[in-house]
């Protein structure tokens, strides 16, 4: 769906996040299952990310979304282990019925909101230069 087709939607899909007790093992599993690869380093980073940090896996063909596998010490019954991350307008999403779980602060540049059913999702401010277009993602 192009930006024109989305119209004036208050959010745009960014990536999917899975919580895992053993995030390194689960990242390897999903890489094998989907034919994805780990993204060990990002542009501008001199060193690979530490093993305790979340792992990003991506479709080497560029068609599928980035999936983040993030470590959690234990799963809380109230939290959903799969989460959507979006670039968006927090105010507009709140006006549509989302609720604020926690506001961005300090180095954390995202808000945590919950949809009307209580499912949490992260809202990031749109990046400078606009939201990247992934034409192969369906």
TrEMBL record:
**Which residues belong to any copy of the Glyoxalase-like domain?**
16-124
Give the start-end ranges of region Disordered. Answer: 42-64
Q: What is this protein called?
A: VOC family protein
Identify one Pfam family in the record.
Glyoxalase_6
Looking up PANTHER family in the UniProt record yields:
CONSERVED PROTEIN, HYPOTHETICAL FUSION PROTEIN
